[in-house]
Amino acid sequence: MDSISIKVPVTIKAKLTEKLKERLINDFTKSAEQMELEIKQIEIDRKRELDNNPENAGRIQQFFGNEISQRRQRIAEANLRRETIEKLQIGAEITQGTLERQVELKIGDNMREIMNVEVLIEDDKIIAIRG
Q: Angle, nearest 10°, between helix axes 57-87 and 18-52?
């Protein structure tokens, strides 16, 4: 066998522009606000459940407490990400995720070059493919 076809990851990076920075900050802010609304709804649901099932107060408190805790953790993460983006300079490259690509490996290929591929985008347009 002289070759084999495999899937390898491709890192997707974005060049930070004013437009992207504004969008990311807005997304993280909205996410935190949404979690706050969910917490308020969970509080209402908890009160209703406690009123309807006082004999199960411990389990109800634990269940709804866990749900609120998860939302508060997501709020903290969204706020941290927003603060991080706010501090970044325009032109910085931020990792947005990964995709996969199909590659044909042949004897003698440089594995480092095959594995370290990045796609750089700016305002939703590909501006570079680095290998």
A: 170
Element spanning 105, H or E: strand 93-106
Query: Pairing relation of β-strands 125-130 and 118-122?
Result: antiparallel
The model carries a pTM of 0.76
Percent of the chain with pLDDT over 90: 85
Cβ–Cβ under 8 Å, residues 9 and 97: no
Q: Residue 2: which H helix or E strand, with range?
A: none
The H or E element spanning position 23 is helix 18-52
Whole-angstrom Cα distance, residue 9 to residue 100? 4
Spatial separation of the C-alpha atoms in residues 31 and 75, rounded to whole Å = 7
